From TrEMBL:
Any GO MF annotation of the entry: 2 iron, 2 sulfur cluster binding
Task of the protein: Iron-sulfur subunit of the cytochrome bc1 complex, an essential component of the respiratory electron transport chain required for ATP synthesis. The bc1 complex catalyzes the oxidation of menaquinol and the reduction of cytochrome c in the respiratory chain. The bc1 complex operates through a Q-cycle mechanism that couples electron transfer to generation of the proton gradient that drives ATP synthesis.
Broad class of where this protein is predominantly found: membrane
Residue spans crossing the bilayer: 63-84, 104-125, 174-194
Membrane topology: Multi-pass membrane protein
Protein name listed in UniProt: Cytochrome bc1 complex Rieske iron-sulfur subunit
Gene encoding the protein: qcrA
Pfam family, one: QcrA_N
Family named by the database record: Belongs to the Rieske iron-sulfur protein family.
Protein localization: Cell membrane
Domain of life: Bacteria
Organism the protein comes from: Pseudonocardia sulfidoxydans NBRC 16205
């Protein structure tokens, strides 16, 4: 038996029973959905009322072109991501050009795949979706059972109107584009997880920094002069009490080697803050690191343990090291432990001393990982 529902504005409509709904065809259900929703279709015209015309074929090829282009770009992205040489090559070595093109090639092919896929979808909608103008009254409250069942039929009907079911060229090209694009995304997401950055054990590049002495060679603390070739090694008398300067690792074997100097200075874990406290400043040292300082001189990693910004500010009045990114503060007089802000780990301290010629040198690498708490942690 049919029920009655009241529409917007008080108009009553006959609502079919479940049995009547079961007997209805998808087209009838879709029509019923528009009636129950107070939708009035003012105009509905398919873009190609006569199938198989040259205009329709041309439109179909246009859409397929974009999907094929997307598929090819996605394929090129996958190949480039896996096979293009991406290991660092110095500018003076053969292979540098190919290495320097890695990021542009990966970026352009990925961007083209996304762009072409989007253009293909938009072109399909514009060229094949029927032209329709409908007007619907606003409804309040949740949808009833009838509305829920009919809306599915309406969606199916709308899908049928797009004529996608009989367009195998577009379906195949779109499937290839979406499939290859998805594979590319998957590879880009999983690729970095497959490479094991710790495979070299304790010598893995992520465990060590440029401060590690190699082949028994001394590692000096070099001042930042702004000129790569202008080497100035730091001595205690170069600094006033209550001052700070940024230093980088330097080995005599690197003198004159622009590439090595550049690498030593640009490495993200290399910068160190060398701080000279005022004489007599009370200090709390970390257990096991009691001899890491040289008199009033303390060397801490400059890489913030929150998210890796350079903690470039030293406030001599209260001996605080400040990170400008999220305002973490570290106490230089207490092994640079965090006292304010989001950082939870002390800045690693570099063990230093002075050699027989009076220059600061690193006694070893940092004893712990440099940088944010989620980077390079052993435990
Ligand atoms: S990176 Fe230093 S406080 Fe966030």
């Amino acid at each position: 038996m049919s029920g009655v529902t009241t529409g917007e504005g008080g108009g009553a409509k006959a609502v079919p029973t479940a049995a009547e709904l079961d007997d209805m065809s998808p087209e009838e259900l879709a029509r019923l959905a528009t009636e129950l929703d107070d939708v009035v279709v003012q105009h509905n015209a398919p873009k190609f009322p006569v199938p198989g015309t040259r205009a329709e074929k041309r439109a179909e090829r246009t859409v397929a072109f974009w999907f094929v282009l997307s598929a090819l770009a996605a394929l090129a992205f996958v190949v480039a991501f896996i096979a293009w040489p991406h290991e660092y090559v110095p500018p003076s070595d053969p292979g540098y050009t190919m290495y320097s093109l890695y990021t542009p090639v990966v970026g352009v092919t990925f961007g083209l795949a996304v762009l072409s896929l989007g253009v293909g979808v938009i072109t399909y909608v514009r060229k094949f979706f029927p032209e329709e103008v409908s007007v619907q009254q606003r409804h309040d409250g949740p949808s009833d059972e009838v509305a829920r069942r009919t809306v599915m039929a309406q969606l199916a009907s709308a899908g049928k109107d797009t004529t996608i079911a009989r367009r195998s060229l577009i379906k195949r090209s779109a499937g290839a584009a979406a499939g290859l694009f998805g594979i590319g995304l998957g590879i880009a997401a999983i690729g970095p997880l497959i490479r094991n950055p710790w495979k070299d054990g304790p010598d893995s590049p992520l465990w060590v920094t440029g401060w590690r002495p190699e082949n028994g060679e001394t590692v000096f603390l070099r001042a930042d002069t702004g000129e790569l070739s202008e080497i100035r090694r730091v001595r205690p008398e170069d600094m006033e009490p209550g001052s700070m300067q940024t230093v980088f690792p330097f080995r005599e074997s690197e003198r004159g080697d622009e590439e090595a100097l550049l690498h030593a200075q640009k490495a993200s874990d290399a910068p160190v803050m060398l701080i000279r406290l005022r004489p007599g400043t009370p200090v709390v040292k970390r257990a096991g690191q009691e001899d890491f300082n040289y008199g009033d001189y303390y060397a801490f990693s400059k890489i913030c343990t929150h998210l890796g910004c350079p903690t470039s500010l030293y406030q001599a009045q209260d001996n605080r090291i400040l990170c400008p990114c999220h305002q973490s503060q570290f106490l230089a007089t207490e092994y640079a432990r965090p006292v304010f802000g989001p950082a939870t780990r002390a800045l690693p301290q570099l063990p230093i001393t002075v050699d027989e010629q009076g220059y600061f040198v690193a006694r070893s690498d940092f004893p712990e990982a440099v940088g944010p708490a989620f980077w390079e942690r052993r435990s």
